[in-house]
Amino acid sequence: GAVVSQHPSWVICKSGTSVKIECRSLDFQATTMFWYRQFPKQSLMLMATSNEGSKATYEQGVEKDKFLINHASLTLSTLTVTSAHPEDSSFYICSARDIGDGYTFGSGTRLTVV
Amino acid sequence: AQSVSQHNHHVILSEAASLELGCNYSYGGTVNLFWYVQYPGQHLQLLLKYFSGDPLVKGIKGFEAEFIKSKFSFNLRKPSVQWSDTAEYFCAVTGSSNTGKLIFGQGTTLQVKP
Lengths: 114, 114
What we know:
The structure holds two protein chains of two kinds. By secondary structure, chain A is mainly β. Chain A has no helices and eleven strands. Helices cover about 0% and strands about 55% of the residues of chain A. In chain A, the strands form two sheets. In chain A, strands 2, 4, 5, 6, 9, 10 and 11 form a seven-stranded mixed beta sheet that branches. Chain A has a four-stranded antiparallel beta sheet with strand order 1-3-8-7, with no helix packed on it. Chain B is mostly beta strands. Chain B has no helices and twelve strands.
């Protein structure tokens, strides 16, 4: 079946630095990928829709300058958390629409900003 | 705006008990509905999905869900739960006119006691 690989699975960074998270579709092409944020014991909140070859579409309230999304190829989308602060600590999950109109999710990235 | 509401936030059952988790959505057009499960420390897995046709959908691990259009509901059921069903369950919806964004409910934590 469709597989989405997300790296890193966890990262600890210092406040003020930037962190890049990669999301790859391994056996299918994904023109659209989605980035979510999940707080402990809470649901997944959609942050943005990543479109191959064009600008990402951000949900209301999400700072596009802080959460930079690049979808340069049909198999790779990246999320860069710029100038990270402790409040950015969270679990970030990507997903891609796969064959059959389903959605495949990455395993998530636990970001801790110290 | 579209939304998904899961009424049960935390459910505790004994093994062999029957399960029903509520899910209601708000969306003005044609919808696709999903139930996902997230086991502790793991990524989201698809339990079942409804696109069209028979409103009673059977998924993996003995789960099923029924789409009732008049009630805007898509409740998840399982006749007899097992300890291994302990997990977080998410209902999600996407519509034909929202660029494929998958919107999640708040999630329900299911704890099955052996």
